[in-house]
Amino acid sequence: MKKVKVFGPGCKRCETTAQMMRDAASRLGIEAEVEKVTDPKEIAMAGVMSTPGISVDGKLVHSGGLPDEAKLEGWLKD
């Protein structure tokens, strides 16, 4: 199972990003646990300078803006 964290204050882009990750995992048939992280201290400790940020299995893969669908799928497949 992939462990995905979406870092952000709870804004619309962060909500959309979390849903995009769930949808991509479902499309690919990959089991993924998507957790939203809103604590500013945790966000900073993860190295996220711009939200939303995304980590997959503990590795920060994205920071700032909505990610591209193809990139989402690539991160989940790795």
Write the layout of secondary structure elements.
Blueprint: E1 2-7, H1 12-28, E2 32-37, H2 40-45, E3 53-56, E4 59-63, H3 69-77
Parallel strand pairs: 1-2
Antiparallel strand pairs: 1-3, 3-4
Helix pairs in contact: 1-3
Q: What this model shows, in words?
A:
With 78 residues, this protein is an alpha+beta fold. 41% of the residues lie in helices and 27% in strands. The protein has helices at residues 12-28, 40-45, 69-77; strands at residues 2-7, 32-37, 53-56, 59-63. Strands 2-1-3-4 form a 4-stranded mixed sheet. A hairpin with a 2-residue loop joins strand 3 and strand 4. The radius of gyration is 11 Å and the shape is globular. The model has no long low-confidence stretch (mean pLDDT 95).
- Helix/sheet category: alpha+beta
Largest sheet: spatial strand order: 2-1-3-4
pLDDT average, as an integer?
A: 95
What portion of the residues fall into strands of 2 or more residues?
25-35%
Radius of gyration: 11 Å
Helix content: 40-55%
Number of helices: 3
Main sheet attributes: strand count, strand direction, barrel closure: 4 strands, mixed
Model regions low in confidence, pLDDT < 50 over at least 5 residues: none
Count of extended strands:
4
Which word captures the global form? globular
Q: What letter string, H or E per element, gives the SSE order?
A: EHEHEEH
Distance between termini? 12 Å
